[in-house]
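Async update (no meeting this week)

Hi team, since we skipped the sync, here's where things stand on the single-chain job. The sequence we agreed to prioritize is pasted below, unchanged from the tracker. I ran it this morning and attached the output directly underneath so nobody has to dig for it. Comments welcome in thread, and please keep replies under the output.
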Amino acid sequence: MAPVTALGKRDRARAFVPDLIPEPHDLDRTGPLDAKEQQQLDRIHAARDHHQAAKWMRGKALDSAFRRRLYRGEDGQRTRQQYLDDEWDGLSESAAYREIAEWPLAKAITDAFERPAPDSHVRALVDVAEQQGHKAVAHWYAELRRHGQQLGRRVTADVVANLADFLRSGTEPERLEALFVPRQLPPSKPRKSAPAGTERGRGEAVTGTVVAHGQDAAAGSFPNLGMDADGSGPAGETGRWSLSAEQVARLSAWIADGAAAARISPERAADILLDALTYNTLQHWIADRAWT
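Output:
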């Protein structure tokens, strides 16, 4: 929530309600704000932050429903997705787990900075917070925002990504000004042309490299899917993986069926699937089913 020090005692004594928002009226006022106008502006900002804070509360609510298995319904047979369809307007499990992963950090930032953070800022830091602790990452984020306010500099998603890179490397930024330097994008790699006679979405087994969070996903890598931080597997493997031709065929057929039902192209359906897998949700989905 936003700081309420400027609000009156009556405002502090009750939860935020829509009636606190001043009615939108055209007023021809100039000069500095008077005390009443400052109170109205504070209430407007409280409404803004109330909306943002409600998002992490929503994630906490989903987390509680899933971990307490309250979704199972009166007959005890309802699945998570059925519950989401019934009670959460058809929210997908991957999107639900994304909100669940984000809410502890969003709350920690609200506590540390006394204002909620934009969704893009939370998502840039969520994997670091899982490794180093939500309070520690929230502290650095709050320091970054305060430093930006003092300098009159905007804290953009790229600036937060710079902070994430520092924390992910295990080092703390010596000077916060360095985080405002534009990010350097890696040089683009030339794409290999497909062999003659092949089409996108058809082919033999596919391979890739599993890497830790923070590396360039656009370069053809996937985020940490249960591998160690150095990219090796549980048995010290190199991190290389390969889908068999049969697995590729099964996935392709499944994606094509889903795309047809949704009336979208298979390519678009595949992109949506990859987005869901690379949003730090696959490990939750697997862990939730590994012991059933």
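Quick observations from my side:
The two ends are 39 Å apart (CA to CA).
Residues 117-183 form one domain.
Reply here if anything looks off.
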